[in-house]
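The pair is quoted verbatim underneath.

:::
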Amino acid sequence: MREIDRMPEGSRIVEAGSGFGTLAINLARRFPLCRVTGVENSLVPLWGSRLLALANRLPKSRLVFRRGDLFKYPYADVDLIVCYLHPAAMRRLGPVLRERAESGTRVVSVFFAFDDWEPTSVAVCNDLYRTKVYVYHVGRQHPLDLKV
C-alpha cells in the first residue's frame, strides 16, 4: 500500500485478476475518494469478492467487481493498475498494457515482475518471503531496448 500511496481524489484504480477481492477491497478502504474496479473472469472468486464487498459495506460508487478477461479489458482512462499474477500472465499482460493503457499510467505488481519493463522502483516487504513490489509506468522503455 505504501507504494500506491498518495492517489489523487477521483483516481481510477483497476486490479487485473482480482480473485476473491481482498486487495481491491483494501484499496477501496485506503483510498475512499477513488474508484476501484476488480476484473475477474472466474465466477466463484467473482461472486466471493462481491459478497465480501457487501459484507464490508463498500458502495458500488467506490468499488465494483466485473466479470471479464483481464487481457481484453480496455485499461483506457485508468490511473493505476494493480496486479498479483503469475509469470506467464505477466508476460501476456505487458504488451496489452503497452497497447491499451495511457502513457504514464502507473502499474504496481506484487511478487512478479514484467520481464521486459524497467521498474521505477522496487520495494521489499518485511514479510516471511521478503515479497517484492514492483512499480512501473506505462510507456517507459527498458534501457536495453533498441530501436531498429
About this structure: The chain has a mean pLDDT of 91. The helical segments are 22-30, 43-55, 87-100. The CA atoms of residues 62 and 80 lie 15 Å apart.
